[in-house]
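User: Reviewer 2 asked us to show a designed sequence for the structure in our supplementary figure. I'm pasting the structure tokens here. Could you produce the per-position amino acids so we can include them in the response letter?
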């Protein structure tokens, strides 16, 4: 088995590196950052697959800036859909299996019940639409693929995530406004990385779409409150709940108001664990090396 991890310098890529390095599969992994490999370059990809004897790809490469995607639609689509098609074709030509990461933002959030894999996708942002188009293309071109939709992903080893931003702002501001009408499930990237390791360590391969997030739900406001409490910063800053309408003030992308994911399928199929989001956040903050 030879596993290629694309987008290896992103949040999930970094978590995968740490989780895989301590595992029996550790010596079977190639980590490719964006600088090492552009997934839109089908030729480069095919060469790497052939030269290294790649058998599996975990695709963590993506255009993930949800707000910037609205004004940079072509750039977002180029990575999340067009490049994914090239990756799918190159992989399928060489019999390589793909684990691809997608998002809760493929849903519109007009429900109060955790989304199952068979629920109808209806993205409300360009980012969500590009990720949904990527899912559809991947399943058409490489039907043996596994797609894992996750939500509210964070890794404190990176700066560009909700907990890191809240902690950083708590050091520079007295008041913080956070929306209390977006409900979802935070996901520690290390938990998702362990789930991916479990899938790759399982002899059977069950293709299709899966949902993975930490268990429990919260609003962005509750999430921020827990971050400040667990980081010992709750006395430093006043947290103000606001509605998405006030907050966005017409700028940025729309987000689904409710995007909790039902994770029964991945737990039953692969026996992976979905720790509670508060426990995982507590662990992430306690073990954070900053
Ligand atoms: N973050 C979340 O809250 C969240 C929620 C749900 C789902 N997801 C999904 O989870 C996956 C991992 O997300 P993440 O948070 O780890 O993202 P991330 O930190 O933004 O990492 C994405 C990585 O992809 C790289 N990349 C971009 N275009 C590329 C290309 N053409 N070829 C190769 N690499 C490229 C980026 O490199 P550069 O920065 O150098 O361009 C970056 O290192 C993504 O599929 C995302 O859609 C994320």
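Assistant: Here is a per-position design you can include in the supplement:
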């Amino acid at each position: 088995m030879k596993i290629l991890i694309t987008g290896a310098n992103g949040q999930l890529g970094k978590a995968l590196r740490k989780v895989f390095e301590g595992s029996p599969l550790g010596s079977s992994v190639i980590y490719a950052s964006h600088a090492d490999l552009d997934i839109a370059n089908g030729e480069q990809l095919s060469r790497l697959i052939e030269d290294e004897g790649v058998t599996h790809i975990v695709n963590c490469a993506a255009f993930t800036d949800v707000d910037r995607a609205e004004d940079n639609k072509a750039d977002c689509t180029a990575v999340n859909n067009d490049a994914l098609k090239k990756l799918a074709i190159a992989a399928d030509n060489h019999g390589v299996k793909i684990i691809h990461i997608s998002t809760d933002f493929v849903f519109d959030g007009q429900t109060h019940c955790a989304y199952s894999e068979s629920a109808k996708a209806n993205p409300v942002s360009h980012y969500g639409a590009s990720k949904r188009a990527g899912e559809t293309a991947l399943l058409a071109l490489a039907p043996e693929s596994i797609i894992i939709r996750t939500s509210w992903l964070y890794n404190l080893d990176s700066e560009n995530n909700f907990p890191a931003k809240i902690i950083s702002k708590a050091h520079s501001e007295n008041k913080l406004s956070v929306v209390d009408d977006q409900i979802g499930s935070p996901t520690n990237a290390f938990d998702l990385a362990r789930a991916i390791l479990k899938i790759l360590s399982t002899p059977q391969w069950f293709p299709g779409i899966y949902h993975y997030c930490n268990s429990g739900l919260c609003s962005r406001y509750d999430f921020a409150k827990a971050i400040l409490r667990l980081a010992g910063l709750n006395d430093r800053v006043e947290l103000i709940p606001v509605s998405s309408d006030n907050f966005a003030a017409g700028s940025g992308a729309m987000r689904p108001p409710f995007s909790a994911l039902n994770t029964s399928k991945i737990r039953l199929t692969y026996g992976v664990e979905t720790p509670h989001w508060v426990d995982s956040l507590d662990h992430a903050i306690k073990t954070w090396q900053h």
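For the response letter, you might also mention the following. Residues 106 and 145 are 18 Å apart (CA to CA). The radius of gyration is 19 Å.
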